[in-house]
Design brief:
The longest helix is centred in the C-terminal third of the chain and has 12 residues. The two termini are about 35 Å apart. Strands 1-2 form a two-stranded parallel sheet. By secondary structure, it is of the alpha+beta class. It is about 20% helix and about 10% strand.
Length: about 90
Amino acid sequence: MNDRLAFSDPSATLPAPYGGIGFPERADDIDVRPGFITPPPGYGQVPFYWWVGDRLTRERLAWQMERLEECQGISGLQINYAHGYQNGG
């Protein structure tokens, strides 16, 4: 395997820590329903935030983050920067 891609070799990855946040149980007889009713820490809603390159001020960003703070169950945030090609960059 190419050395540059060695990090992605599944046989070279460390095992998930027992009870680690975000690592699912691997038992064959696990009842997964309770985990969907009350997700463990590390699982939850992850809003996708699309920034399309329009002017973003500190005040506007603070307002948007305050709206997200009002939501319940958010465990992460995905920010996607969608920009166009303009002025050579």
